[in-house]
Amino acid sequence: MLTAILVDDDYPVLRYLSENVAWAELDIELMGCYSNGLEAWEGSQRRWPDIVITDIGMPKMNGLEMLEKFSTVNPQLRSVILSCHNEFAYAQQAMKLKASDYILKESLNVEQLQQLLSHISADLSKERKQTAEALRYMQIEAMNRSALKENFLKDTLYQLSWTKEAWLKQAKLNGLMLDAKHYVPLVVSVDRMSDMIRTRQMNDHTMVFAVENVLQEVLDAMHRSVIFRYSQHELVILVCCVDPTKEQQLLYYSIPKAIQAIKQYVKISVTCLLGRQGDTPEELRRILLPMLNDGSQRFYLRENELHRYEKAVFSTEDMYGEYAAFFSKINDSLALNLQEQLKNIIEEWARWVEDHRFHPANVKEWVLQLLMELQMKTMVTLRAQPNLSEDKLYDVVNSIHSMEHLKSWIMEYLLKLSRKLSILSIRSKRTEVIRAQQYVIQHVTEKLTLEDMAAYLNLNSSYFSRLFKRETNQNFIEYVNMVKLQKAKQLLEQSSKTIEEISDYLGYANKSYFIKLFKREIGMTPSEYTSWNG
């Protein structure tokens, strides 16, 4: 659907056109009516119109000045000028701004304007279709060109018999000008690709394509280079040069500039590795393969920066010597819901790992063991399902390529677990209260009353009520409802049960009461919660 605005300081004209033009039949959305050009310009900043129907003589900004501004942001803009001025100069200026028509108000009728808008709509639709078709062909061509370059790169890395002459000849056949005395290779990796795909709702090809375009634009101004796609998250750059020392110095200026441009315009973080120079396909192969195939070399590098590639050396120490101490501190912080303390412990752990530079595989194995033990404790203590299955947890941790990413992911994961545990945590030192809380958690689907709980504990109900309130700062029924509602949230997220089935399952005799209670405590109805989490 096309969009349009009406601009005229004559209110009756605005009202007449807005009410009498058959906008819906023309498949045009009338976005707004404005009394002058400045008001229309400011009111359209969030969404530019396709069509502007405007008067010329208006206060603050006249129609022609306004159209000139709109044309700078939307070259495809179509306009219709309604005016009392029957002067050639006005009409001439309007035509320079590509106005579709210049209509005198005294001769205006709705049928005439509708016919004109119908023609404009058809022209714009045809133009957009042609533009989309051209863009599609350009994308296909770019993808084919990218595929050819990718194949050539992989032939370079794995075709052992190529001489430089044969290599250059093959490059030329693929449309690549690589003739040079020296080459400086770089590997560019998209940081946190899985997170980017989830949060940006873009596939890996689109993201890498966007990164390549920005890189090419920045590098073309300072270098002669060719960019290749190597994998779902990696690009290889070959910089052709005569003086590699001078070229590398220049790269320390141009690559950070490109990294920042990618962050600013595409909102993607990339990390770049700069390799030593190579003069032949064989030398480039020996330089690039370790840079591409051994991800452990990049594990301790800062993200969104340029680094010179160097073979990493890792500690052979046993990192499990500190496992019990860290587990104890993390477990205590989780149990007491001390989130700031938990953050500090994770920071301390990350510094310890980075200072010792343990092998990335050992670090991930250590993390997996820690998280699996914490999840097991959650399941046993609170009878709650883990956030991630063991297989899923393994996949997520092993897909992380940097210590920086691993630290932030662990922090997010444990803080989420802490919030979950804080709702159901047992803080009292009194055995009777601890037993009561454990019983509620383990029998969450049953109908639980204060009297039944006191009888289970062999206590007077009034005494138990005061004791529970003093120890937990909430009465027993409030605690029961809190646990049940957390279970309800879990069922709404993870099961196909209806609201009525969940209400019955949790021991509520009245569905209306359950919905009312849920809304009061959670801030939305169960149906709204399901939609919000969908």
Automatic annotation (TrEMBL):
Residues modified to 4-aspartylphosphate: 55
GO BP term, example: phosphorelay signal transduction system
Domain of life: Bacteria
Pfam family, one: HTH_18
Molecular-function annotations in GO: DNA-binding transcription factor activity; sequence-specific DNA binding
Keyword list, A-Z: DNA-binding, Phosphoprotein, Transcription, Transcription regulation
Response regulatory domain residues: 3-120
UniProt keyword Transcription, yes or no: yes
All residue ranges annotated as the HTH araC/xylS-type domain in the record: 434-532
InterPro entries reported in the protein's UniProt record: CdaR_GGDEF, CheY-like_superfamily, Homeodomain-like_sf, HTH_AraC, HTH_AraC-typ_CS, Sig_transdc_resp-reg_receiver, Tscrpt_reg_AraC-type_HTH
CDD domains assigned to the protein according to its UniProt record, in alphabetical order: REC_YesN-like (cd17536)
Signal peptide stretch: none
Xref: PANTHER family: ARAC-FAMILY TRANSCRIPTIONAL REGULATOR (PTHR43280), HTH-TYPE TRANSCRIPTIONAL ACTIVATOR RHAS (PTHR43280:SF28)
UniProt name for this protein: Helix-turn-helix domain-containing protein
Organism whose genome encodes this protein: Paenibacillus lutimineralis
